[in-house]
Specification:
- The chain is of the alpha+beta class.
- The chain has five helices and seven strands; from the N terminus they run E-H-H-E-E-E-H-E-H-E-E-H.
- It has a seven-stranded mixed beta sheet with strand order 1-2-3-4-5-7-6.
- The longest helix has 15 residues.
């Protein structure tokens, strides 16, 4: 699905957290705290967080960890008023490219077994079910489906490799 709105995606900053937390609270039964996001932004060298904007307004966000060749989506959400407009897909496609730029070749995530809309999007973009984490979501004891996308596409050469190829 091509995004139905003009979305720009940029690095998340601490100044974005009021709006990110608002979306987080509207999206999850047990939302992350400001401290959790701040820690990811300022203390975790594996973490990469981004916001999606429409007309300058933050309408979604996602985070991922890059560890060696693996990218792990830690969280992703779109404001309820902006769902089903291609924003989630735009963010994931951006995540694929950013993860490749950072050396990842595959990506994983967990999703609630009850979150059928998210599962549908993930499968559309090439994720496959690989397992279940029993009782993963401690707020409801709900299981999580572990999903993997094994091929993020051809790796881009790192900048320092490009000069040697010329």
């Amino acid at each position: 699905m091509k995004s139905l709105v003009n979305v720009t995606i940029e690095k998340m900053t601490p100044e974005d957290l009021d709006r990110v937390l608002e979306i987080e609270q509207l999206s999850y039964p047990t939302p992350w705290s400001r401290r959790a996001f701040l820690s990811e932004l300022t203390e975790n060298s594996y973490a990469h967080y981004f916001v999606a904007r429409v007309g300058g307004e933050i309408v979604g966000y996602f985070g991922m960890w890059i560890i060696l060749e693996e990218a792990h989506i830690t969280n992703i959400a779109v404001h309820p008023s902006f769902r089903r407009q291609g924003i989630g897909e735009s963010m994931l496609r951006f995540a694929f490219e950013k993860a490749k730029d950072l050396g990842a070749t595959r990506m994983t995530l967990e999703v609630r077994v009850s979150n059928i809309p998210a599962q549908t999007l993930y499968r559309k973009l090439g994720f496959e079910d690989r397992g279940i984490r029993r009782g993963y979501y401690t707020d409801t004891n709900e299981d999580a489906i572990i999903m993997w996308k094994d091929d993020l596409g051809p790796r881009k050469p790192k900048q320092e490799q490009v000069k040697w190829m010329m």
